[in-house]
Amino acid sequence: MTVASAIETSGLAKTYGKTQALHPVSLAVPQGSIFALLGHNGAGKTTLIKLLVNIFRPSAGSATVLGRPSSQIAGDDFTSIGYVSENQDLPGWMTVRAFLQYQSGFYPNWDDASLIQRFELPLDRKLKHLSRGQRMKAALASVLAFRPSLIVLDEPFSGLDPLVRDELIEALLDTAASQPTTILLSSHDLAEIESFATHVAFLHNGSLLFSEEMPELSARFREVTVTLAPAAEGEVAKGFATPATWLQLQHSAHTAHFIHTRADSEPVEQQVREAFPSVTAIDMDPMNLRSIFLAIAKSGRTVGTTEGGRL
Amino acid sequence: MSKTLRIVAKDIRHLWPEVLLTLALTAGFAATEHFGWQVGQSSGLRESQILSAWMNALMPLSWWLLVARAVHDESLVGDRQFWITRPYSWQRVLGAKIIFLATFILLPFLLAQCFILHQAGLHPLVVFPGLLLKLVLLFAFVLLPLLALSTVTPSLTRMLLIFLAVIIYALLAIYLTSAFGPTAPLWVPMGDRQIWAAFIFLIPVIAVAVTLLQYARRRTPISNWLLIGLIGLLTFACIGSVYVKRKVVVSFPPSASGEAPPLRMEFNPDPAYQLAAISSLPKRGVESVTLLVPIKVLGIAHSHAIDVVGKSITYEDAGGVHGTTTWYQDSRDPLVGDAQIREEIYLPQDIYRETEGKSITLHLAYAVTELEAEPMSFTTPFNEAQMDVPQNGHCFKTELFGEVNCQYAIKKPQLTRITWHLHPTCDASSSADRADEKWIGGEEASETGFSPIVSVNNILNADPLGRKTDDGEVCPGEPLTFTRYRFVRRRLVEITLPPIDPQHYLLPPRT
């Protein structure tokens, strides 16, 4: 494991009977990153996270979390790992105050005063009587209060109204800015992650499609639209083989359209002119996370299909 | 505050209604238990005794509730509990649960035991090791299985359903065992005891394994298989029990040749022991007739006794009709010295009718336990108010029926022979008329239920049914001698009677 990785997995997989919930996953979460684990419902995000915090045991492969094998994580390890999940069973009979007071005794460093104020937590209300947003705030406060080195959040913003979601994101970003913290969070809502994640990984049907830094990903993917001369009628040069870095190539009499996955490093214009001799114009538009995910998912490619382990 | 105590404090804060209920029922048990052993002391206790019985039933239910609620507060089943990703070590959580249960179940139960003993006039400190053993047994055989079952269930409802399923299965298995096994409803042969002892020993062992596995690893599927394995062992124990009951003689070996002292049992041909001939036969439809055959028991050594615990009878008539009964219990008191007994023999009525007017040959096999008196006996003058007796007991005469009842602390007395003399009247001039005796206690001093008091009633009435006799009375000041007997060995004694006419020994049918 490199020192710079807070989490590193190697062929980590999980099966339930004959069902492969998670195909072997190898990824690294750099220290200090805000790492977004993306994918639709049932993609394997929760399984991967629960393997990392030793709620589940892997069927194959291994992982290290803060330098410790994930299968050995227990007890005092959770003084430096904070975990919050959307469907975690909190002790509903406790008031927020009692919950925070009870938790405070388990951590050497605990400071919840500013968090109570920030989240405007109703201290005397029982957890079971809180709204979804308030409950998530209380859960997050109980994690941020002990200043963990690693914060693992499983679908923390699911079902929250935008105001609460922004509050939580802001709190996370402040935490990341004020102390050396790594944040790993999963989400099926790509738009909400795009604004603050430093790294992203896509899971699709239990397989890792790719794992990459956000700026690099944004730079690589381009939606390319090619305008062809009217007389050419969409003719492709003889002997042209579609490059592996082109996804979803479609062309008609006057236009061609595809996603380029290496627009930052390959000569896109030259490739297009070789493919379509009658080209008159080339437009390259940046893509958002959602479009990138959909393009990759529809093409059915995975991280291992191209040289260098990336598309 | 340590993390363990923090969890305990949290449990108390959350489960205070269950804690209060448990404490109230334990207090109720302590307060009403004496009603249960005041039979015959005064009238009007019926409602109180029902209350005492309810407390005895409700108290363990409150334990079940408290154990389940305490464990489920940090549930070990599932993957959504918040506490599994918090800095709780499993040792701390398990330690907290044990401290909680010890504080609110074991300690109150111990105090209740001391209170009940004190109320009965027995000193708790004298039997303190026994009290501690009782707590250990309560923990091992009641709380640990409940703890283990709680660790593999996510909720009270699920646990209740599983608990009921296990109870129904166990009752069914035991019923089938008794249905298919030989007729020995009360007498449990030694081999059978060993099988059940092994099974019962496995209950806390598997409960510990499941509890540790769940707390340390949360491996619910494996734990479930362990518990299912225990149920499987119950099935094996039942099958083994049936097998062993059929092989009972293995536990009671025949006397070796030259073994001293030779114990003999012989037919007593003295016509004085024959019954008056009965002209009418028992009614048809009655399955069996009862013969009372006189037997002499010889060769019981001085300071020894024999206890006939079971018997089997083989009969054969001149025409070759024959049969053998299963082993069945013999409930008579142990025998000392040369003794005369009338052996009750149950003969199928159709056999009796077929052999009418003919003679039959009986072969009797006795499973016998040989006992030896301990060198020191204890003699105390009879005191109607209260008298202390050996083995942590005391006796007193009840107000209502005038019986002499005894109470023992923690466990029933070892097999003890009480001897005394009856007087025609209790006048100063009256001299002792004849010797009398009563056996109390058991060969094995077993532990009792929840109560620390074991009652042994009517100790000065030699009639096994406790009927009042006109043979005389035990007068105040009469020396009562208590002699304990210890187990020496088991043996099988067999005799073949000369051919007899069954009609001469037929017990008159009840009219």
Descriptive overview:
Chain B: Keywords: Membrane, Transmembrane, Transmembrane helix. Chain B: The chain crosses the membrane at residues 12-31, 51-72, 93-120, 126-148, 160-182, 194-213, 225-244. The complex is a heterodimer of chains A (311) and B (511). Chain A has nine helices and 14 strands. Chain A has 311 residues and is α/β, with parallel strands linked by helices. Chain A folds into two domains: 5-213, Rossmann fold (3-Layer(aba) Sandwich); 217-309, Alpha-Beta Plaits (2-Layer Sandwich). In chain A, strand 7, helix 5 (162-178) and strand 8 (182-187) form a beta-alpha-beta unit. In chain A, helix 4 packs parallel to helix 5 (162-178). With 511 residues, chain B is an alpha+beta fold. Chain B has four domains: 1-124; 152-251, no CATH class; 264-373 and 491-505, Immunoglobulin-like (Sandwich); 383-477, no CATH class. In chain B, 39% of the residues lie in helices and 22% in strands. Chain B has helices at 3-14, 16-36, 46-73, 90-119, 128-151, 156-180, 190-217, 220-246, 349-354, and strands spanning 264-267, 288-298, 304-317, 322-324, 328-329, 339-348, 360-373, 378-381, 387-389, 393-397, 404-409, 416-422, 434-440, 453-456, 479-496. In chain B, the strands form three sheets. In chain B, strands 3, 4, 5, 7, 8, 12, 13 and 15 form an eight-stranded antiparallel sheet that branches. In chain B, helix 3 packs across helix 5 (128-151). The chains are: A alpha/beta (311), B alpha+beta (511). Chains A and B meet through strand 6 and helix 2 of A and helix 1 of B.
What form of chain B results from the Cα inertia axes?
globular
Low-confidence stretches of chain B: 183-188
Oligomer classification: heterodimer
Radius of gyration of chain B: 28 Å
Strand content of chain A: 25-35%
CATH topology group of the largest domain in chain B: Immunoglobulin-like
Mean pLDDT of chain A: 89
**Which word captures the global form of chain A?**
elongated
Q: Pairing-aware structural class of the strands and helices of chain B?
A: alpha+beta
| Low-confidence parts of chain A | 302-310
Please give the largest β-sheet of chain B: 8 strands, antiparallel
> Architecture of the largest domain in chain A, CATH level 2?
3-Layer(aba) Sandwich
Output the number of helix runs of chain A.
9
Approximately what portion of the residues of chain B adopt beta-strand conformation? Answer: 15-25%
- Kindly state the percentage of residues in helix of chain A: 25-40%
